[in-house]
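Technical annex, item 7. During the second reporting period the consortium partners agreed on a shared format for inverse folding records so that results from different sites could be compared directly. Each record opens with the tokenized structure and is followed by the designed sequence. A conforming record, contributed by the partner at site C, is shown below for reference.
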């Protein structure tokens, strides 16, 4: 199925719920990209056994696809001083949730309790801040159906998927905050900044 071998299919078939997919992602070490920037395909992630946020989101989207969900991801854009994030999103009982790969105590899994994508995205707003405590989330994309890239063999490619990364960067994004609101934002508390420095995987 989808070009995966028997071993890979067995792995995906076991991941039959969003929470199992998240648990599986959490076991995969962070990809610190020692050889340079990467955008691994889901197959490559399983082979290398490491991934960062977009790579984890693509893997999660495939796992969801194996169990009847559409392979959807959402791109979260920040200020230039922070890192953007990509999440795999899913819908259960009419509500949206998210699967997320991160090395920090924040920007993680979201239960499917949000009525729309904007509400889901806004659940990340308060905890999305830089090392100085400045809140940096600025816009988001609507869900992108990755099946649009099926003809390119994105799920099992041995090459970096920069075309997906580029598409997510260029697709229409929706602002969540205006200049007046930005000027009035309060910085995160010191204890929040300290908690934000906790990492799951060390280099």
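Designed sequence (site C submission):
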């Amino acid at each position: 199925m989808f070009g995966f071998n028997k071993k890979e299919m067995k792995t995906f078939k076991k991941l039959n719920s969003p929470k199992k997919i998240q648990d599986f992602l959490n076991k995969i070490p962070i990809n610190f990209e020692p050889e340079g920037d990467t955008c691994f395909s889901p197959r490559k992630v399983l082979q290398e056994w490491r991934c960062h946020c977009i790579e984890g989101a693509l893997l999660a989207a495939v796992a969801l696809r194996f169990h009847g969900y559409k392979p959807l991801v959402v791109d979260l854009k920040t200020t230039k001083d922070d890192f953007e994030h990509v999440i795999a999103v899913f819908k259960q009982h009419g509500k949206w949730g998210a699967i997320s790969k991160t090395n920090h105590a924040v920007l993680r899994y979201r239960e499917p309790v949000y009525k729309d994508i904007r509400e889901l995205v806004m659940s990340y707003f308060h905890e999305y801040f830089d090392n100085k405590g400045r809140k940096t989330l600025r816009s988001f994309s609507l869900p992108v159906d990755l099946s649009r890239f099926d003809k390119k063999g994105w799920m099992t490619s041995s090459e970096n998927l920069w075309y997906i990364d580029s598409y997510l960067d260029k697709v229409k994004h929706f602002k969540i905050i205006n200049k007046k609101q930005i000027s009035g934002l309060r910085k995160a508390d010191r204890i929040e900044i300290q908690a934000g420095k906790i990492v799951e995987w060390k280099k």
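Residues 6-196 form one domain. The helical segments are 6-14, 18-27, 42-48, 53-66, 117-122, 162-170, 179-183, 190-196. All partners now use this format for quarterly exchanges.
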